[in-house]
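ASSEMBLY PREDICTION REQUEST
Request ID: AP-0331
Submitted by: J.K., bench scientist
Number of chains: three
Total residues: 1116
Priority: normal
Notes: Please return the full assembly, not individual chains.
Input sequences:
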Amino acid sequence: MRNRRSLTISALLAAALILAACAPAATPTAAPPQATQPPAAEEPPAAAEPVALKVYVVDYTADVTDTWLEDEVVPAFQEMYPNVTVEFIWGSWSTFGETVAGYFAAGEGADIINLGSEFNGLYGSQLAPLNDKLGAAAWPEISNFIPGTLENASWDGELRGLPIFSAPRYVFCRTDLMPAGVTEQPADFAGWVEFAEAATVIDPATNSLTQQGFVPVDAGTMADFQWYLNTIWSLGGSIYREDGVTPNFDSGEADAALQFNYDMKRAVYPDDTVGALPAGTGSVIEEGNGAVCLWHSGWAAPAPDSAVWSKIDIQPFTGDPTNFPASQPIVLSFVDWWAVPAYSPNVDMAAEFLKFVFNQENNHRYNETMNLIPARADAHTGYVVDNPVLQREAELASEYSYGFAGILEPTQLQSILQTQLGLYLTDQQDKAATLSSIQDQYTQVLQDGGYLP
Amino acid sequence: MKENPYLFTLLSALATTLFIVASCLVLGLLARFFVRLAGGTRRRQEQAYAGYFFAAPWIVGFLIFVVVPMLASLYWSFTDYRIGRPLEPVGLENYARLLLDDREFRGSLINTLFLTLIGLPLQIGVALGLAVLLNQKLRGEHSFRATFYLPVILGFNAAVLLCWRLMLNASNGIIDQVIRSLSNASLPIGYINRGVIYAVEVVNGFFLGLTNGNYTLLEKVLETGFPAANRVPMWIQTPLWSKMSVVLLMVWICGSMMLIFLAGLQATPRELLEAAEVDGAGSWKRFWKITFPLLTPYVFYNLIIGLIAALQIFEPVYVLYRDNQPLAPSAYSMVYYLYQATFRFNEIGYGSAISWLILLIIAVVSLIQFRLQNRWVEYEIR
Amino acid sequence: MTRTIVRLLGRGGLYVLLTAASILMAFPLFWMISTSLKSLEEANAPRIIWVPSTVVLDAYRSVLADPDFLRAYVNSAFYAALALAGTLISISAVAYAFSRLQWPGRNFVFALMLSTLMIPAQALIVPQYVFFNALRWIGTFNPLIIPGYFAGGAAMIFLLRQAMAQIPKELEESAVIDGASHLRIWWEVVMPLVKAPLATVATFLFVAYWNNLLGPLLYAQTTRLHTLPVYVAQLYNINNTVQPWPSIMAAAVLTTVPLFIVFFLAQRFILESVVLSGLKG
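STATUS: Completed
Returned structure:
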């Protein structure tokens, strides 16, 4: 009995050890071997070791962009580089945060990552420097990109990827819903507050809005942090002092911008017992959805072929020239981009793929599938100029673009601003306390991050 | 082998099984060895062998998946570890900042307190009520029971929560529409509605005051006085109601508690109730003197499990307020705050300190509950 | 109590109350189904439409035709089945140890196990992630399935343990007299007697695995390994002006179908086993 048992034990242990050794031993083959250096930027590599690129994409139109990328772009690329396979990982903004954080935490994952506009600040230091492959000397085509857009794809003096599109934020207003006697969008803060109040309609039976004069991104709270930053910048203000690092939320512009945001909220919601617009789907300024003006990107506006566009006026946000002479009209520009993480073993091939997907024709095609404005100025053809809406947007973008970039610790700043704005705009805190909280907390964040002593 | 993930995992599972079996044997033998060393009888040695053999899977798993991660997290809590940067020890700085400087953490504690003090009793109350209703001899009892358990099955998946967002809209969400039409139809209901709104806003105003350090909103609510006739709950729109939506979701998902109570009600011995009836006890008296005391073990079970769950509440807050940052601080719980620090800001060191503090709080509260058990839980009728 | 309530409300009144409560509980499901049967225009219309004017099956067709959806279904099934197999066996073994065996240190280990209920899962995520990364298990199903094999889930162990404790000693004793080893007693005597609680535990675990979002999201990394909850979450993309609500809801409804089936089958057992577990213990 003893003997049989100890025999069983040793047999089991041996089997366990063997299998344990087998299973993980199989994994190293999954890691792709290093791609050989291409001799020159345009020539395919001589030695053809197989290279597998993984590309994580969040900006795409289902069944259009993905089909085009997989069925047309990749095969064309493979004609140049037969040893390369490209696998796309289709994500969405709702799962973006965890997925990308997971890649960087593990130190491996996709070779090319589709990042949002402000993420050059968060992940910049962990992305591969690409000036030697994509800079003007190595790739002359880079000069065709709208300059502001390249800022979003850079960090610390180096390009880290390439921008796909420019999604600026405009003020879209329904001309048929403007208050009586008003034909144009207001030109200063006081004008806007008056406009918002006059254009808002509250139904006494339900004590809720049936028409909302102004929607800055979020119709309910009207406390969006991008709207706040946009207001500061439209006044000619800046969120950093001259040294580029110290927070500037104790400035006159920050104060006036905050006051304006509050006044706009109260113009629409006299107090916090008023219900929001009825829940709907689709753009808020579409027929029947109740908003008069919207400050947001093109994709929060109605679909390009919608009939409502004949009644919509598109303008930049003009700030407050009356009180702040340095005001400038701006369209806050969000530029999503494809970046190459430093952990990737295939940085060279990834850069080659970037150059291919972001050539003139492909950049145009990509954006056409999403109805956005290409980051390459020479791709502003076809659908961009044919559709009057997009053409108007492109014109405004080239003239007034202000990049949403270069923000230090963007996720933290976003959280601080959203929280504090939320507190102030619901009367839980006064303005002075709000501004000093923002200033103190952001300073603390930058100190923790090593930007400030 | 990794090219086929299914095969890889199947083989890993097989390897794991063998590993577990091996560890069962090893632990059993070790246990028997130690008992023999300690001079235990032959019987005790065999008992030790059997016990540790069968308990080994959990013990080994506990060491690998709980102890080691918790020790790592404890270590990190004393550093400033962030993803992508080298870590540096900072001693007690994280804890000091959490307890003294971090207003948002204190806010999350107060929110969790609110959810526990108000949400948990409501959950238990509704579960008990539903169980009592279901305990009548009804046709279709099984279908009703399934419907009340449905929310637990649906869980908090993305689609369900999007549905809730639609339903909670103040002007055309179904919940408020029903409240509105009932209030308009009948005056007493209207008064009850306004009364409840007033009470909710006062209590929430008070808690918000605790969080923010100023009672402006509470003062405003008191100043405005009794709500107007066209008011309805504002659910996910204002800080005065944001926690109540979470409470609503907590109550919606009380199906498991209801099943526990139902089982308890069905286990109440008929004879006791009948005997009391024969003695002339009225039905309320029968309920309070017999049924309820016998239910107390079940109440206690639901209370303890519910308390631990309430203190750890995450999913409802996550989906309702994840992309509503301005309202989130008025509603987020301790664990949501932990999640945010870890995943949004990638601050692992700080996040680890938060987890240990949360653990401490839960442990203390649970211990208090256990101590109090003796006071009011009856296992038998005196 | 019965008679009082019935007298108070009347039989009809009771039904009304229960039906009202059911409506509230089941409304999200109703809304999901209704939206999934709408056309894209109706689903995105500004005013609320309760029931689609014409039932449109386009959403279901497109979801079922999507290879990613089918693969997600397979992945969810694979994950749930494999995890359930290992977890049920190890939980049964551990519950047996706590309920029918005496051994030195048993009460301490039992208390330790219960105390793990107090640890929020979110606290363990990052250290476990780092651990799995060191094993090169990120990008596979392993981190989702393997931990369960070690009898994860204190609440389930507790439930099963209570049930096993109720079994009368005499049933075991005859096997002992026959000279059976503990393994045989466990497998041949005890396990068949706890079928109902086992079914309950299996149901709860299945629901948890099937609905798990965060785990697969963190560990899957590529679309090939996505499970159903991740697939549904990805369908909602803020870059779309017109959200594919019907498709999102159709995918969600299809996701819930297995859960219903399992619950209806196991309903009877769940109640029985709670009674059996005798919470008074």
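REVIEWER COMMENTS: DSSP finds 15 helices and 15 strands in chain A.
SIGN-OFF: pending second reviewer
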